[in-house]
Amino acid sequence: MEAGDQTDSMLQDRRMQKFLDVLSRWEGGDLSMMEAGELLGMSERQFRRYRDRYEEAGEVGLLDRRLGKISTRRVPAEAIEEMLELYRHRYLGWNVKHFHEHLLRDHDFSWGYTFIKTQLHAAGLVGRAKRRGAHRRKRERQPCEGMLLHQDGSRYAWLEGQPMLDLIVTMDDATSTLYSAFLIEEEGTASSFQGLLETLVAKGLPSSFYTDRGSHFS
Question: What are the extents of the domains in the chain?
Answer without folding.
Answer: 10-62, 77-123, 148-211
